[in-house]
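Changelog-linked ticket: magnesium ion example.
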Amino acid sequence: MENQKKLKVLIVDDSENDALLLVRELKKGGYDPSFHRVESESELESALCEPGWELVITDHNMPGFSSREALELVKKANLDVPVIIVSGAIGEDVAVSAMKAGAHDYIMKDSLKRLVPAINRELRDAETRREKVQAELALSHMIYHDPLTNLANRPQLHHHLQEALQQSLETKTLVAVLFVDLDRFKVINDTFGHSAGDNLLQEVAARLRRCVRYDDIIARYGGDEFILILENILCEEEAGVVAELIIKMISEPFEINGHEMFIGSSIGIALSDVSTDVETLIKSADLAMYQAKSVGRNNYQFYSPDMDDLAERRRQLEQSLHKAMSRDELELYFQPQLCLHTGQLRGAEVLLRWHHPEYGLIPPDSFIDLLEETGLVIPVGDWVLRTACTLWKSWQDRGLVPKEAIVSVNISAYQFRGGGLVASVESVLREVGFTPGSLDLEITEGTLMENTRISQDVLHQLKRMGVKMSIDDFGTGYSSLSYLKRFPIDSLKIDKSFVLDIVDNPDDAVIATAIIGLAHNLGLEVTAEGVENTQALEFLKENGCDFYQGFYYSKPLPVEDFLERIA
Ligand code: C2E
Ligand code: MG
Ligand code: MG
């Protein structure tokens, strides 16, 4: 019995004796059958609800019931197992029509020795059919899904969006397309490696799932781009709520391969009242996403038609940006920083300007992200650093700035990666013959928090060189106190958003005062940026802030004007 194959058989026969004969035949043929006999339509129907049948053997003629009805029921139950008719003599035409109705074989009761070979053959065939169906399912899953995240892929997205749009016309509702792009994903990929990047994308996919209804479509559109389709939307706000939730979920820290990682997301939303064309809708959501990125990341924007012009302008900017350096269109402005208590010059912040041949003077906020996206921020950042140090050194040598005054240079997240920054600072200091202590690098909190371990390494290397370091725009990011203690920095810069209104807005005043206290507790100096009037100046002085910069004393100025202003 041990080597016998188990087989779960459903026998449709009004004679118990005949059924036992069949079972004996199966046992002889090497099977260990467990069987159940039914003899009416209703019995068969309820037996078919039970799972696990591997074979159906049916008589042809039973009282009030025939193999024809039995075949119908098996078909209706969607059961793909061999069905074999075992019966006394029936006409050839009946046998043929039974085969057509789905029977796999027909065996006469007096030649039962054919039964087991027929079953062997049909079970093998059924297995092959099952494998084929499974392979087809797997293949179609592969064709329509992104293998990494298991989300829908582009073709699947297009197909679904098309359908959703069609349906929305009938139901008179809207479809919203949410274009989600991760902020600074590339940095994570470059610093932690691709496998960590992949894990992060999978985590993001899982979090996105939790932001929408079970049957809403989520697709991976590109490397770090995702698209969500929301159906049956009645107004903008509904999509806005989902976008807010996504931003919140993605901004929670990720734990990947033992590292804590922070990323953000920018979301563009286009609703089907803009267009019911799939391509146009996706393009509009993409444009809105760009807008979200340029107004400061970690936010969402709805598409509006004027974004088309912006996009065009951006394309042109990008083209001309490639030529800006070689055409000498970039210039450094200097904004004085002063001691709040003595009024003496502490130094100056270097701020980049671009003289665009067509658009005139462009402030950095409208092209720094372009520089970063195109990778131009590396050579441009290098140029800023070198030029600033060269100028400052010549002013020191000529006695135009006090010996102890320092020059502050902004460093982008992209420059901060890998160790390229350390090498670049080192070579500039050496080649220019610059005193390291006269150079201050301004780095934002976000940059440091992207990879706290690498940040610590880089900061310590710079510290060993004797360079000063400040955290810029402090208060707008994570403000993680535990890291603040571990980073070897010299000062904090209170973001101007807390300073501009410091006199009238009590919240801002509280935050600014807290930052001053925090900095001093940690032994750091603190600079306020955005000081525009005497009241702000007095407030900061009273609350112990060390330095300030702002329009009150001077706007950022071109070289000649700067030297004149501080003389
Ligand atoms: P930031 O480093 O926080 O620079 C301070 C910004 O505040 C400057 O804007 C400055 O003009 C402005 N500001 C200073 N005082 C006042 C004031 O009293 N009132 C108001 N309303 N604004 C004031 P700017 O020059 O447009 O630069 C914007 C940002 O662009 C900078 O913010 C910095 O993050 C970035 N940036 C500028 N130059 C460079 C650069 O060479 N490299 C990199 N990576 N980023 C740069
Ligand atoms: Mg700065
Ligand atoms: Mg700042």
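Closing comment: Example verified and attached. The pocket of magnesium ion (ligand 2) is lined by residues 349, 410, 442, 472 (CB under 6 Å). Residues 5-142 form a domain with the Rossmann fold fold (CATH 3.40.50.2300).
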